[in-house]
Fold:
Amino acid sequence: MNLEFGDIYEMEMLAKTLNHVKFFEERPIEDPFMASPILANVHRRLIWSIIEVYEKELRLQGPAARWLEWLEWDGRYYEPLAVVKYASDRGDWDQLDQMAKFEVLRNCCSPFEPNDTQLSELCGQIDEKRRASGVY
Structure:
């Protein structure tokens, strides 16, 4: 199944909207989107489709390079704050093992792909926030 877009700008608008909704909107903990593996996969595939269109169809390396740079987790400010807030408020966080925590965080961070060291740092920030709030 293929989804047709009118042009690359529609794809970019959708990607930016997903990012805004996921990381910049205030929402209650029951929110179904932040850790959704389905949304994480769709968002990641959309970004890589944009990069592919720029590289292969439009042969424009500049915009493709900007999207690749945008995907880097290093230098992100607001997205980690949103992820830490969401995960630290989860009632089941302490029951999850390290692999399950990393999976939750990968879904929360998508379309960005932090490495294991960065995920460990997020876990530390989450645990610290939970301790500070008396949840831990």
